[in-house]
Amino acid sequence: MNITEKISRLVPGITVAETGDQVVTVPVESFRQVAEALRNDKDEPMDFLRDIVGMDWQEGGLGALYYLESSKTYNRIVLKTSTTDRENPFLPSVCDLWKTAEIKEREVFDFFGIRFLNNPDMRRLFLREDWIGYPLRKDYDMNSNPLNMENEENADITEEYYLNPDGTIADKKNIVFGQQDFVVNIGPQHPSTHGVLRLRTSLKGETISKVDPICGYIHRGIEKLNESLTYPQTLALTDRLDYLSAHQNRHALCMCIEKAAGIEISERAQYIRTIMDELQRIDSHLLFYSCLVMDMGGLTPFFYGFREREMILDIFEETTGGRLIQNYNMIGGVQADLHPDFQRKVKEFIKHLRSVIKDYHDIFTGNVIATTRLKGVGLLSREDAISLGVTGGSGRASGWANDVRKHHPYAVYDKVDFKEILYTEGDSFARYMVRMDEIMESCHIIEQLIDNIPAGEFRVKTKPIIKIPEGNYSAAVESSRGEFGVMLESHGDKTPYRLHYRSTGLPLVHVLDTVCKDNKIADLIAIGGTMDYVIPDIDR
Question: What are the residues facing 92 on neighbouring strands?
Fold first, then answer.
């Protein structure tokens, strides 16, 4: 029995989208029942909530799309639910089923004003607590928030809404930090917190009792901007999200638009995209190594990582023209063919990297200070990794096989042989080792492709104005930090009705409270370093 059949047995008369993704519309009064049944299914538990995407369907109501996946079978389904009450919109919370929903529901509330019954923390996530209105609603007044230079006060009391037995809605107050809590601010400053992230941290002595991440210091409203851009114009904004996954982010958006518009790209472009993605992964993991060591007080390995990373950036620059910001992927392929020296330099680089990687391990991996500060510190269980949506190397360090390249192959990943790096310890050292091993695995992938790039065109011709058929479409890639997803709703126009990005970093910041609790304050920076989040990707 497939997933939609299971849902239709629970709720007769559901509707399933005919175009795009398999979106199942569930009435709001039955939504909670369906969500519980899918999450607790014995044969195929939908235990990974990939994302919650808030939506304003205007006459169709305010609501959300829930992207679910089973960590057992890797099957996916999308649930859709909404309420027509625009003045007081409420949806049932699912944060008791999936822990990641607590922060994802806050994001939906922040931008759409939808409150979730039984979510204990209904504060804004990115915008100021005194912000007026909900910016991603279609009727939002863009002039409703003049420049405010007053300091923002911390919201230490949050409201939790719940349903009374008589069907009325009541609320109660929850305390974030009380008068008796000793709270220190960590951040926001870059690069100490890997971007402008602020962590309000309560301590008992030197032991952490709670971490409350404050996001939004560089929120740029990229998803709102997308609604007024044509599809080719939207590409420029992806490079500014996770800038250490710039190729991969843009790859995901191009894939989503190409799939929706029915554009077939050449095999040559697929090979080039795959090689660029893996070079980008090595680039990111080298920076991860450099910054983690510097976070922990070491300096020499920082220069090692930057030395090899500079070689990758030189290779990028010759072909793409960019170093940090990459605008190489285009709808229909890539913007230019490979530089004549590209293949030779890539092979020389991989040979060089293999010869020096031993130095990286000699100076840090086996160092007694490193092992003492990382092993057994910041433990994350496999179950919590899945429930909190911690994808990428941080999830694989806890034994969760979540590599999109393996389980949902795209580009030419189904044509190459590579291992999905898994560790089971779930500590900071395992998160470090996953990324160090992935550097070598990326080299192995590139070696299989670099001499076999097929001839042909690097980009197919596309119309200057691209219109996508009505429907919901999505695509996902394995970025340097985990699953980066693109969720697109089209109403048949040349601009997207809604274009949302699944942040890889938001779950990595949300998980800090879980992994840092009962550790020492001195461990927090090292734990955060092994999570490897990038703040612009979170704030969007």
Answer: 117
- pLDDT at position 11, please? 75
Whether residue 135 sits in one domain with residue 260:
no
The dihedrals phi and psi of 450, each to the nearest 5 degrees, come to -60, -35
pLDDT tens digit sequence for 357-402: 999 888 889 888 889 988 988 899 999 999 999 999 999 999 999 9
Q: How many domains does the chain fold into?
A: 2
What is the C-alpha separation between 26 and 432, in angstroms, rounded?
Answer: 42
- Give the whole-angstrom CA distance, residue 22 versus residue 5: 12
* Residue 193 covered by a domain: no
pLDDT, one tens digit per residue, over 277-301 is 999 999 999 999 998 888 888 888 8
81 and 229 in a single domain? The answer is no
> Taking the mean position of all CA atoms in its chain, how far away is CA 461?
31
- Helix (H) or strand (E) holding 515, with range, is helix 512-516
Residue 287 token pair: 């920076």
Nearest-angstrom CA–CA distance, 540 and 535: 8
φ, ψ at 119 (rounded to 5°): -80, 125
CATH number for the domain spanning 502: value is 1.10.645.10
Cα dihedral value 455, 314, 290, 251, nearest 10: -40
Quickly count: other Cβ atoms within 10 Å of residue 146's Cβ.
6
Question: Does residue 324 have a pLDDT over 80?
Answer: yes
Domain span at 136: 3-152+161-175
Whether 211 is covered by a domain: the verdict is no
Please check whether residue 302 is in contact with residue 224, taking contact to mean a CB–CB distance below 8 angstroms: no
At 71, which CATH number? 3.30.460.80
Amino acid at 112: F
CA distance 509 to 156: 19
What 3-state DSSP class applies to 405?
helix
Sign of CA dihedral 254, 259, 265, 269: positive
Q: Which residues contact 330 (CB under 8 A, 6 or more apart)?
A: 232, 235, 254, 459
How far, in Å, CA of 10 to CA of 425, rounded? Answer: 39
126 in the same domain as 13:
yes
Element (H, E) at 173: strand 169-175
CB atoms within 10 A of CB 20: 19
Residue 225 in contact with residue 325, Cβ under 8 Å? no
Report yes or no on 198 lying in a domain: no
What mean pLDDT do residues 113-125 have? Answer: 90
- Coil, strand or helix: which one is 410? coil
Q: Phi, psi at residue 95, to the nearest 5°?
A: -70, -15
Query: Does the pLDDT of residue 2 top 80, yes or no?
Result: no
